[in-house]
Every structure is written in structure tokens, then in C-alpha cells.
Amino acid sequence: MNFKKMLWVSICMLMLTACGVKPNENEVNLSLPQVKVNQDASTVTDQADADSVAKAEWDKIVDFQREVIPVLEEVLIKQFPMKVNKTGTPTIDIDGDALLEQATSYFDNDDVNNLKIVFLVDKEDATEMMAIRKELEEKLGDKVVFKKAKHNPKVLRDMAKEVDEYLHAKILSKYETQSAYSVGYNSREEVIDIRGKLTDEHIAELTQKFGADRLKIDPKEFHTTH
Fold first, then answer.
1. Phi, psi (5° rounding) for residue 101?
2. What is the strand order of the sheet 144-148 is part of?
3. Which of 8, 56, 84, 190 is found 20 to 30 A from 41 (Cα to Cα)?
4. Per-residue model confidence as pLDDT tens for the chain (226 residues)
5. What are the Cα distances from residue 168, in Å, to 144, 194, 215, 225?
6. What global pTM score does this model have?
């Protein structure tokens, strides 16, 4: 029986740099002051202060990404070049799949006064990654951080697709048509996020097949907007 489903894959930031310097809104974590509900003079002031704080923090994130993204693109294209054809003009871009076989990355915006680009590296001794690390640390200093990945990023991303297919074929085929689930590769937490109306038996099947350390399961009904 057919049913609604969503398959989403969180692509690492470096594969999206061609889109420009607009920050990934999902990565922004802004801590704002609490604002009272009643609309008195102090509430208006508090809201204005909160808006001012939010704008200042957002501007810092935009400025940071505007600074580091061109450097990242320049360095990564050297090690992972890929010929592409944009609007009929041959050019060179980053080979995202080749990069993902060795590492993934994300913007750490948790502290807007100490913004970072974080690399989670699986193949630390690869020639390309050693060259990337050397050049980025020279050009960006402590604005870039390299950490050892728990899992290979490309394996996890591809596994997310396998999990989706497995759910569809083996577990959720008897769901009602309005039921839905989501599966996604979470590059920052290095897990596959799964959300849907799953039983203990479903969860046991998934963890046995794909490994509990690779999955983050939220067994709640997933409602789409359509």
C-alpha cells in the first residue's frame, strides 16, 4: 500500500558553497532573552532588544561565512576538482562525493563570538586531507577545527538511503496512506535520523541491521503538511 514518506539527506556544508554565503538556518542557534506576553512598554523594549541581539548575532554569522567560504572553495577545489558544465560553460567545482569519502564538515554557530568551521575526518592520513588541513590552518587559523570522525561520512549518507528503502519494503508497507516517516543523514551528529510511528519491534529490526550507534530514532508519528 502506498503511503507518504520523506527522504532527506543533510549534505555537508562544503557541497553547498556554490549557493553563496547565506548561512544554513538549521545551524543557527540564537539564545534570545525571554519576552513577556503582555504588550506593555517594557515588552516592546524587550522585544526590540531581542530583535537587536538576533540581528547582531546573525550579522556575525553572515560575515564569518562570507570570509571563510571563498577560502574553503579555493582549497577544496585543488584537492577534489570536478569538471562541470554550468549554463554551457565548462568549469571546475568541488567533487562532493570524493570529499565525503574522506570527511564532512559543518558550521559551528553555537557561540557567535567564537564561530568555527568543523571538519569531521575519517581518512586523516589521506594525501588530500593532509594538504587541506595544512592550507586551511595556515589561512584560517583557529577558525577551522579538525576532529576524527566516528563513521565514514559517505557510508553514513548512503546508509540513510538504505534505511529508507528498508523501512518502505520491510517495515512500513502496511501503514495507512496518511502515515509518514522521515530518514536523514545528520552530518553534525554523525547519525541517521529516523522519525516515524515505529514499534519496539521495528526499532529492534533497524538497530540489528544498521547498528544502534549509527541511528537516532524518534518513534513518533510524523505528520506532513500535505
1. -65, -20
2. 103-108, 116-121, 144-148
3. 56
4. 333 333 333 333 333 222 222 333 333 322 223 333 344 555 656 776 777 878 889 999 999 999 999 999 999 999 999 988 877 787 888 999 999 999 999 999 999 999 999 999 999 999 999 999 999 999 999 999 999 999 999 999 999 999 999 888 876 666 544 557 789 999 999 999 998 888 888 899 999 999 999 999 998 766 554 4
5. 39, 13, 17, 20
6. 0.72
